[in-house]
Amino acid sequence: MKPIVYTRVALIVTNPQALRLGSLPRHHFSQAGGIIGTQGADWPLDDGHQGIKPSHCQIVWDDGAFCLVERNGDTRINGNQAPLGRDVSVRLNQGDRIRISSLCIDVHLEQEHHNLPDPERHLAEHTIEELLNAEHTDAGDLQNLPAPPGFDVSIPEPAEPSAALQTLMQPLEQISLDPLQALDAAQAQRAPQTPPISLDPKHYGLSEAPTPMDLASTRFEAISGSRSSSGEDRMSQHDTPSYESVSPAPLHSTSTLPAEPLLEGLGASVGNLDAAASYRLMLESGQTIRAFIQGLLALRNTTHGHQRLSLQSRTLQPIEDNPLHLGQSYEDTLRALFSTERSRVHLSPKAAVEESLAELSRHQHALLQGIEAGLSALLQAFSPAQLTQRFQRYDPDQTKAEQAGDWAWQMYNHYYNELKSDRQRGFEKLFWEVFEQHYDRALRAEA
After folding, report:
1. pLDDT (0 to 100) of residue 440
2. Which residue ranges does the record annotate as region Disordered (predicted)?
């Protein structure tokens, strides 16, 4: 067999986006060869990385083949990490890939180029219409080609017109009008050429189907798969998939279900979920969020509690950026937290809840300190020494020691009755005065 002689080589850059302006992404070298490099080379290239030398490499025709010779640059071929080396020559083959700096160049060896509609373009750059309309596809040229041995290229003589007419005039009764019978007849004719294909019992419906030859050989596959011959075993009843045995698998938290973002936000598994359990989880989560928000709003509402115990921050800021602290209704608070049109200078729902819970914790700590200080002040106010000193100022003439005990008890009874009368607020005022001082001090210390 006569070896193929290539008359030129086409080099095409596969990543032309790496080329700088002015560099062409393709070039053809004839048997005369040429230099690949920068300005002044037969094929000037520039990728902007300064990795291409003026005479980077060279295409030469040597011993009946195109060869690549490295000159002054690092040239790699077919994925090799090491460059060729200076003045090292390598024979180019069809489909080789050359690496010059950041450019990837494919090698296309071409034969006589006068057969192409446009010799200046590579075969891959021609359209199908151009190739089909080329002059070398002329039928006269094909008839002049030598016939293979044993192949009869003689054109049969046309049949007699009377025979063709008799065929067309045969009675309609001889032609079957049943489409199924016609398909069966066509299948019987093709049976020796298309052996039956048995079903795959393990991957039925999943394995790749063979390419159908014609409608006659595919009408049964379209319904029930290829039919097995009498000598082949059909699928057993045990291997046949049963619809009764198929039941919906439970949905896990890793599957695609509406509650999946909620489970991800919870950060913990709640077990297997089907559609009903997923709906119930989302419903109960919404009810829980509603109760939580309403509870926080009620704690901050001062109309149903003591003014001194209201959850008010002791730190001043230009705006209140927590939607839970704006004193709005539940509906307005919910929209301020989760609406797509919520304010851009409000805390996120998670940050707002975290800040509110931290405020509750500080409030509880300060509350305990205030109560403890208030009770200590009351206890100190009822000490015997302090009461005796106070009673002596009420009745300075009491000097009889033998009556001191009875006198002190009588004075205490008068003191207690006055303390609980409607005109006195000293007891309550003493507690709250001390409480507020220590409560405020504790809040400011932790703010």
Report:
1. 84
2. 139-158, 185-211, 224-257
